[in-house]
UniProtKB/TrEMBL annotation:
Transmembrane segments: none annotated. Residues 330-355 are annotated as: Disordered. It comes from the Bacteria. It comes from Pseudotabrizicola alkalilacus. This is Phage portal protein.
Length: 355
């Protein structure tokens, strides 16, 4: 995590998964089931001291940094309903399996190991059961070596901006006078002026060598390599050497589809497995609301809502709900606001035809 690219990737993925709202929906009506006991654990508070957002962030970070993954134990009441979710450190959890393959967990506590069934532990894990930092340890180590090397170069070495050569030997007093005069004449606000040299002296600027340029490119390549390990677009790690306005926007969509979707699906199944009974899962499902990630700008979002309203796919109150605005009276009618004027019909058109 002391490698900035790794820190950025871990925080980006885990915090984005944490901040996206997770809700329970009815499969038939598509309505959010806010009264279900699991809804508060997913959308509000995991327990009295941890929000649902903070728990998802912590467990996703655990899964990115630990091969075992992230774990939270479900605390139930006497009726078996889920009441709280408690994070447990991955180091205290052992993942085991019955002879038939059914998984179970043992958690080390002050009272000794405690066994939990697979329905009582929320478990999220990286692809293949291996954390990205484990699989990419060599790339991360090389990035850390680059950081250490450049630090030593600046700590122990010095490279001048230019060199003045003289055809004759100067004593120490003359060298010091020349240095003082040059600094007074060409430093600070006077930089960039015309230099006048006596006694046949020449000035040669020190430029970046091919080795220096290669070193800088290698550092950028390690950021890209770490981005590959976390399946994150390089621009999301602020490696913008090849970023443009158009491809940065496209990479943001790729971040949702390629990077986040597997994590969101893993969380949805973990929530369903632990917080819903098998019978409930037939009628209820957990899902993340990703509208904010799909909206690239206020103008694009407004245009999308306008199209949904005009085609009769959303009511005015549904649009207001998406904007976190309170509902309005009469806002639940599915009508096209661009063709409905609200004008009263012409009385002459309502008269019965002549017989």
């Amino acid at each position: 995590m002391q490698v900035p690219a790794v820190m950025c990737a871990v925080s980006l993925i885990s915090e984005t998964v944490g901040t996206l709202p997770a809700k329970l929906f009815d499969r038939q009506t598509r309505q959010a089931l806010t009264e279900h006991p699991a809804y508060a654990l997913m959308h509000g508070e995991a327990n009295e001291w941890t929000s649902a957002e903070a728990l998802r962030t912590a467990l996703t970070a655990d899964a990115l940094l630990n091969d075992k993954g992230g774990f939270a134990v479900v605390v139930r009441n006497g009726a078996g309903e889920p009441m709280e979710l408690h994070r447990v450190p991955p180091s205290s959890v052992s993942v085991l399996a019955e002879p038939d393959g059914e998984p179970f967990y043992t958690v080390a506590t002050d009272r000794g190991p405690v066994r939990y069934g697979f329905r009582d532990v929320v478990h999220v894990q990286s692809f293949g059961g291996r954390a990205p930092i484990t699989l990419a340890k060599n790339a991360i180590a090389l990035a850390a070596a680059f950081e250490s090397h450049i630090g030593k170069v600046f700590a122990n070495g010095a490279q001048p901006g230019g060199i003045i050569t003289s055809p004759k030997r100067l004593d120490e007093v003359a060298k010091q006078n020349l240095k003082t005069a040059w600094t007074d004449t060409h430093s600070g606000p006077k930089a960039g002026g015309v230099a006048l040299l006596d006694e046949g002296m020449l000035y040669q600027a020190v430029t970046m060598t091919l080795t220096d340029a290669q070193f800088a490119e290698n550092r950028l390549e390690q950021i890209r390599e770490i981005a590959r390990a976390f399946r994150t677009p390089p621009t999301m790690l602020f490696e913008l050497s090849r970023g443009t306005w158009s491809n940065t926007e496209e990479m943001a969509r790729q971040f949702l589809q390629v990077t986040l979707q597997p994590w969101l699906r893993s969380w949805e199944w973990s929530y369903s497995r632990c917080l819903l009974t098998p019978d409930e899962r037939r009628d209820v499902y957990a899902e993340f609301v990703i509208d904010d990630l799909l909206s690239t700008s206020h103008a694009a979002r407004a245009a999308a809502y306008g199209q949904y309203r005009s085609m009769g796919a959303m009511t005015a109150n549904e649009v207001r709900g998406g904007l976190n605005l309170p509902p309005l009276a009469g806002g639940d009618v599915l009508e096209n606001p661009y063709t409905t004027t609200g004008a009263k019909p012409d009385p002459a058109s309502e008269e019965a035809p002549n017989e």
